[in-house]
Amino acid sequence: MAKASSKKKAEEKKPEYIHVTFNRPRQYSWSTGRYLGHFYAEAKENKRIVGNRCPKCKDIWLPPTPVCPKCKVDMGWDWAELPQTGEVYQYTYLVMPLWDPHYGEKWANPYPSAIILLDNGVFYRHRLEETDKDKLRAGIRVQAVWKEDYEERGHGMADILYFKTIDEQEAKRCLQ
Amino acid sequence: MTERVGILAVGQTKYCPNRADVSEEELAYEAIKQVLEATGLTLSDIDSAVTCSQDFWDGRTISSMNIQHVVGAHLSHEDKVTEDGINAVYCAMGQILSGHQDIVLVVAHTKESQAEKSLIENAAFDPALMRQLGLDFTSAAAMQAKRYMYKYGITSEQCAKVAVKNRANAKNNPLAQEPMDITIEDVLSSKMLSSPIRLLDAKPTSDGACAMILAPEAKAKKITRKPVWILGASNCYETHYLGDRDLADCDALTKAAQKAYSMAGIKNPLRQIDVAEISEEYTYQELLWMEGLGFCNRGEAGKLIDRGVTKMGGKLPVNPSGGVLSGNPTGVAGMTRVAEAVLQLRGEGSDRQVEGAQVALAHGVTGICGQLQAVMILGNS
Lengths: 176, 381
Ligand SMILES: [Zn+2]
What we know:
A: alpha+beta, CATH 2.40.50, 2 domains, 18% helix, B: alpha/beta, 34% helix, globular, binds zinc ion
């Protein structure tokens, strides 16, 4: 058994870490497939948010899915365009920058990331333009802001820059 | 085993590279739809799903989250295995034998095309003490091939014969990726990947999925006329660090086989097994694994291929499907062996059918130089 003094010395020693640096990124070429591919195409071509509708419960799923999670039936190919306005259901205010896995760049910060309840009752998840914490709360009305340049679109949810805060008056105009 | 577990149906996608037309979820669903149609079951009838996929290949932490809808796992039971689908089948068997689950869906998927194979494989090595050597599965396998050939005098020609046989068998399998008419000379003159392994000694990059439905005996008989029974199953691990085991032998496989054989009442595998589907990612492996499986003594598998024992019409046809060499993705390949064994035992092997097959062996492998070995014995009566 080690003497008490040497044991104490061992405890004082700093732990040794293995630091590994990946100089080469592991690249992936993920396929959107048919369902998410349709979502991507509608965003790029028409600045539309689309989901697919279950033939049984008629719920709309976003992102689209081949199988309704609730009814566990094949979804077929029935699409619905979703409203681009809604309200913030919940949000979290991110102050620690994370890496964007698609582009390998750090996301700007701080910014709020939110679950948005679209006006047809379907949830979407996106970033909010508003970064003033005092102006953020659950329930504020928001609207999607698209990248206007066609060539810059083609990245699915990233074709929408963020959801901006709108007043009720403006919301009504949008819904027309 | 006290109660038998039946495989009710199997489904496989066609194996191809670059399935850019489907997402991982859609790929898995292609195979799942087949087993649902074959059994008349719906996803609501599934009590539990056991999935097999790998986070590094999928590029996603908890890769099974990706496919939860298509396995019916919304507010339902799901477990994930990250080795080979054959281990997922084993896990499903255990769930049924425990009495916890009845109808179990098993699905494995991998899209090798979507990532860089050698980088993913390199990450399987110990990060502190092996990764820096720059090895991937092929360069590690090359060391195993050399050691095996040196120790037992196995020749490059004998290894090449495995490629010739399996690529030709693949011509009878519409799901196979690379059916080929090739000669020994073609194999020996194909591009060198990592000596002594050449391009035609190795499996190609592949995407695909495989699905099955399992159930306990009574339910299995109600749902299908032709259930296939798992008579014995086992797996065994061995050491990770190269050099700690003699790469020319495969003790883990021998142990896994012995346990599966004793469960299934197999005393003489060469005589009692009618057809074998063996996971050979490289040609030498079919020979080496046959030795581990006890089809011959150590070092004698070269003679078996020379004598034509393992060809179609031979005493023990090995890989009538074309094997992994003809193209199956990592993580799916061993489960594909089980699926092919099931087709043989149901008499549904069409052009690749081994007439009158009653007992089949399926073998799966995971990791570096066959670190994890899995064996399953299946029967139709
Ligand atoms: Zn539904």
